[in-house]
Amino acid sequence: MTWYENFLKKFFHDPIDKPFNIPGHERRAKEYAEYFGVSGIDEGKYSDQIASCMERSLLPRDIKQDFTEISHPLSEEKIDVILNSQKSIEEISSCLEKISNFYKNLSDKDKALLIWRNLLEEIIDKIQDEELKKYIPILPADTRVPDHSIWEHLKVTTAINAFENYQNNSLFLFTIGPVQSFISQARKAQDFYMGSFMLSYFTFIAMEEVIENCGPSSIIYPDLYKQPLMDWYLKNKRLEPKNFNPAHTTLPTIPNRFVAIIGTTDKNKIEELAKNMEGKIEDEIKNAKEKILKELKIYEALSDTQKEILQKQLSDFPQIYWVAIPWRKEENDLQIDDLKDFFTDDKINNWKELYKFANEKGEYPPNIGFLYQLLYTALEKSMGARKNLRKFEQKQEEGRKCSVCGERNVLFFWESKNKNKFLKYNPMAYDLTDKIEQKYLTDGEGLCALCFLKRTFEIYLEEKFDSIFNDFSFPSVAEVACADFKEKALEKAKEDCDKYEKEFFKILRDDKKFNYLKIKSLPKLKLEKTLEGSWFYEENLSVKKFNDELGVAVNSSQIENLKDCLRSLYAKAGKPKKYYAVLFLDGDNMGKWLSGELLPEIQYAYNSEVWGKKLPEEFKKKLITQLEKIYSDKKARKVLTPAIHSAISTALRNYAIEFVRKIVEEEHLGKLIYAGGDDVLAFVNLKDLFDVMEKLRWAFSGQIELENETIKVDTANNSGFVLKDGVYYLTMGKKATCSMGVVIAHYKEPLKIVIDKVFEMNKKAKKEGRNRFAICLLKHSGEERVGVAKWKIEDKLTTKILKDLQDWMNKNREEKRYISDAFIQKFKMEFFKLEKTSFSEGIINTELKRLVTRAYNGKPNEKEEEKRKFIENFVKAAKTLFWKTDEAIDNINIDNFTNLLEIASFMNKEE
Prior knowledge:
Layout: H1 3-11, H2 25-35, H3 45-56, E1 69-71, E2 78-80, H4 85-103, H5 108-126, H6 130-135, H7 150-159, E3 162-163, E4 166-167, E5 170-177, H8 180-184, H9 189-214, E6 219-221, H10 228-236, E7 257-262, H11 267-295, H12 304-314, E8 319-326, E9 328-329, E10 332-333, H13 345-361, H14 372-388, E11 412-414, H15 420-423, E12 430-431, E13 445-447, H16 449-464, H17 477-481, H18 483-492, H19 494-507, E14 518-519, E15 530-531, H20 543-550, H21 556-573, E16 579-587, H22 590-595, H23 608-614, H24 617-630, H25 642-666, E17 670-676, E18 679-685, H26 689-700, E19 704-707, E20 710-713, E21 721-724, E22 727-730, E23 738-746, H27 751-767, E24 772-778, E25 784-790, E26 792-793, E27 796-797, H28 798-808, E28 818-819, H29 822-830, H30 841-854, E29 856-857, H31 864-884, H32 894-906
Parallel strand pairs: 11-12, 23-24
Antiparallel strand pairs: 1-2, 3-4, 5-7, 5-8, 6-7, 9-10, 11-13, 14-15, 16-18, 16-23, 17-18, 19-20, 21-22, 24-25, 26-27, 28-29
């Protein structure tokens, strides 16, 4: 039987309205299956038994519970639910009957794929009851243990290959890399972006093999539902994913690893599946290479030796690893003792006791599904061992190294003045001077085969993704830096801006080879063809610059004319800032989340009435005792299940797709590099930096709300669910935290330095205790200022404190009163020995207030009371930042405090 026939039978084994009437759910399941032309749903019973065992095996017999609440799977929070059960069933039934008309004439495969992708959204669209609609995506599969949704249960059930008391499954883990080194090897913003996209894309290419053989629900992590690349895959199958925006395909959202349940335990079949994945990626790289070289008219011109070098330089990319743990040993399901090579004897014995308890006291006897946590842990340990066995081949290439990676020799170069500087050390390097657009290779630049593939990969994507990547451009760092200037220019001086761009391109005579200078700006600006940002800085307008970078001969009068146009624009819109920010957000302890070590305690899995009144005390006491032995911190946590993994995956998908893009690109002046799993990489204009940092952090925990369709931070929202577009979206919840590295840099700072620094800052934030941000100001002069802080100080957002201090130090405030930032250095000089002395808090606070008061600049004839309040507010915020920034730092850190102040003040500066 095919995966899609299995999928349909198993998907309809439980109705989505199951919690409203448990006794009648089997009858409704058959009725709804008939709507969609599906029969034989009883054949999926054993898959359901395994999935149910994974999700709710620790329940005694004869416990019943009405649908009254939904538990958050990753925290202690619950949502109370008050709905009319009969009315809800009637409305859902009516919706399904109407929706099913579209599906009746589809093939089983198309039907399975579209039900998997569209059914949830179609139900939400058709539900009239606004209160019922809110809960549709999070309706629980079991009212007694309402911590996993019916959708997650159906996903796991359809992933499991089991019939008639016989299961045939393996847990499979696939990774691709290298990640950080490949992404960070970049000279241009587009290199940075394309490195991320390529890894995401190649991971999905491997996933396709699982999708085709086992179905999309078999991918447990990440959740493929609504993932842009998955939607594009469906689009290519002539299927219509609901509410799909093809433009979103350009954003990498697939992480570099995935976990799947695959329907075989046959070693040869697993190896064949993995080999096919590797082969598909190899073919994709080969096709990309040939397409790009032919499109650029290079392929035929290369010698056999050059082709050999090219192939050799591409041969070790990417690094692919996979492992699998079969759930059967010969003809029997795997037993706990079969996993003893991965665990200590104590661990094995503790799990045996828990299994015995579930067998004796549980509603149904446990099965292989009960061992999912052990299986997953063994899988991760196997991957660690596999990576330790990776082949290391010392490759020593003599010659001039690639301008981007600095590792491999130059194979392609552009050099208009001295070709010998490349050919002397790399006689086989191929000269591309004047043969391709400078969009792909700038004068004086030499690239190896891999970095050239990265730089030109969009050419291949144009073919793969139709028009989406046609004339693709990624905003430069200069474009990010001057985005707020362009925003102001559009508002206050659009004619002057248009005139300047017109005069600029008039000098270039609108030659098509300069089309790469007409870029797509940041999404919020909605500028499809705008002059690249660096040319809005007067310092770049010179005869030499036009000659060296563009190869265009201009005279001084033409340059002066451009400068006059630009100065006219400056007069109305101000000058553009020269600094921008890069941020990297990374979820804290994600390995522990995925291994179950951070799950809430078991009592929070149950309906509160079930735990409080219906479970026997002896059962609860024994359950807690057994679970405390399982975890190293001796807490009686939930047992890890695929539904938990699915919930984590769903929460991270919601974060990346529903919130991150909206925050960075729709609400603020930013551009995403990557947003998948628990990672976010983005460029941000300084004007919006603190706002973006703030929203990204609290959206990760779901502590936000939407007010007039705009995301607002709401740390009081601890439920773990966010109401958006009339429905609840699952998030990681309040227990989940993240760390962030931020770098503020001049647009002329080498991008490789900036990228390395942002990863360094993220590590620094984690080293100081996680749930923090570390921000570095890289001045063009070479000076650095680094500050680290917790996201929240007492009950105040640190970013809000910094925004207030920034505002109060802004000499251009409309209120005409401000604090001069000169006090920062004076404070620093007076207390630079503080860490080695014992000044009292009173002395420091008094001196801080004295210096701030002296730095005050007020309005003419202002009232003394207004001045006093302004100074008091500033001093209060500064003292909070000074004393409460980080209790993990034993000594008072003057540098950390003054650096944070300097960074906040720096955000106000135009130059």
